[in-house]
Amino acid sequence: MANEILNGPDGLDGGKWIAQSFLAPTSFFVSSVSLYVADVGTSDRLAVSVRADSAGAPHVTNLTSGSADTLPVAAWVQIDLGSYVELVANQTYWIVARSDAGLGQGYDWWDSGNDVAYANGIGSRSSDGIIWSPRGRDYAFRVHGFLQPRFTFAVTVSERNLTAGTTSTLRVNFANAGSGTAASLRINVSLPSELTYLSDDASNLGASRSGSYEFAFTNVLPGTYSFNLTAKALETTPNGTVAFVSVAFDPTDHNGASLPRVTRSVDVTIGNSPGSGGLAASTWPWWLLLIAVGGIGLVVAFIVKRRSGQLTVEDVFVSDGSGMLLAHRSSTLIPYQDEDLLVGMFKTVQDFVRDGFSKGTDEQMRALEFGDRKILIERGRGHVVTVVYRGTDYGELAKRVRKVSHEIEEKFGDVIETWDGAMDTVRGITLLLPGVWKRRRRIPTGR
Questions:
Q1: Are residues 204 and 101 in the same domain?
Q2: Helices (H), 275-426
Q3: What is the domain range of residue 168?
Q4: Cα–Cα nearest to 170, from 319, 40, 341
């Protein structure tokens, strides 16, 4: 945001405060402001603050502030602010300038001659910084800031029941769901003594590996990322050993300042009975979703089909906007080992269809159908509800799913928006999912 139209100086001192309002076009962290000013009297510091709006005037409290001792020559002067404060999109804020110098000994701040130079704000004057009156002209200013990243993290494993001597692949997932780039991200994978490292593909994401499987990423743009690390169970591992793999994520913000460490862990059980490991041997609950995106496109196949005329909900998944699993509930008794991967596949299918068929529009895929299984997709603010069911929906299921989505938004919307990957904060979503199954009714089978 800026107004760079210069007309003439307007004085400020100990008895004359000047303020200029501006509208934040997007949410961002303000770091400094620039004013076109000159020190016209006794050398002193120009104090500048950013305040919220209060009924069309600056609030009495500073959000952040800074100061500078400038020269008597008129110029653009950048004042760094003492703390970074996030300004919210489409909200009005004020730049407030003052000097402690005596009458006529403070600063000149150049105005633009009228109040239409900057359409989204006005200039005001005060004698005490509390009571303000419109000045009828805009003042020259620039606002500087940056966007911040926001991370979520998850870890899955392709095979949790290994035979000694076989392999399993750890999938490390992270997403920058914010608007800004992270300066860096370090991921430290700690393998137990029962597993030995074989390979990884983190270099495909531009990562550098050092030490005991520590991966360093720089300039992490908004988006979803994942890499694989394959390990082998030692032949000498005692039967029934449970081994834990720990993954520590150490992100930074846009400026390189450290953000809180997040740790995820998974366990694998190692036995000596016949079996095979690896992703290809993973046991899927009742289907296998194969995705191949290339020159031809997308292939999706289900196995194990049966006919039923009754509407039966089998599974409900809730994920955040980046495809990270938040909650899952199933009507089957078959254990799931790859819930995160399933949700990731759902998102991949949707992204592919959107990119391939909805270019230039805001259209989103809301349903899929494979044989006698159907997938209903309901999007909320920051989350996606995916329902797998059989039979025919005459509108009741979609209505229940929308209701559950609204409940998730009402009770967990703010949590999901700032979610750092900690499952404890979103565990309660699972308690809302039975609402999808309520009031099931028999649907007549067509002849």
A1: no
A2: 339-357, 396-417
A3: 151-281
A4: 341
- Does 222 share its domain with 96? no
Inside any domain, residue 195 = yes
Residue 174, domain member (yes or no): yes
| 297 within some domain | no
Question: Domain boundary at 146, 165, 200, which?
Answer: 146
**CA Rg, the chain, in Å?**
29
> How many residues make up the chain in this entry?
447
Tokens 């025919």 locate to 392
What is d(CA 11, CA 76) in angstroms, rounded to the nearest whole number? 16
CATH number of the CATH domain containing 10 = 2.60.120
Structural domain total, the chain: 3
Could you read off the pLDDT of 210-261 as tens digits, one per residue?
988 999 999 999 999 999 999 999 988 888 888 999 999 999 999 899 999 9
Longest dimension (CA), the chain: 95
User: β-pairing, 262-271 with 214-220?
Assistant: unpaired
The pLDDT value given to residue 349: 53
Judgement on whether residues 127 and 163 belong to the same structural domain of the protein: no
Give me the sign of the Cα torsion angle 214, 219, 222, 227: negative
Distance CA 77, CA 228 (A): 49
Instruction: Enter the tokens of residue 102.
Output: 């005596």
What CA dihedral angle connects 285, 289, 290 and 291, to 10 degrees? -140
Residue 196 to residue 277: CA distance in whole angstroms: 14
pLDDT reported for residue 205 = 94
Q: Which helix (H) or strand (E) holds 285?
A: none
The three-class DSSP label of residue 322 is: coil
The pair of structure tokens assigned to 379 is 């999007």
Q: Give Cα 66 to chain centroid, integer Å.
A: 30
CA distances from residue 201 to 167, 226, 425 in whole angstroms, order as listed: 16, 9, 31
**Beta-strand (E) ranges in 252-382?**
262-271, 312-320, 325-330, 367-370, 373-380
- Residue 444 lies inside a defined structural domain of this protein: no
If asked whether residues 137 and 155 sit together in one domain, one would say: no
This prediction has a pTM of: 0.53
Q: Domain check: are 138 and 251 in the same one?
A: no
Domain boundary residue, one of 122, 146, 170: 146
Q: What is the pLDDT of residues 342-401, one digit of tens each?
A: 555 555 555 544 544 444 444 555 667 766 778 888 988 889 898 988 888 888 899 999
What DSSP state is assigned to residue 261?
P
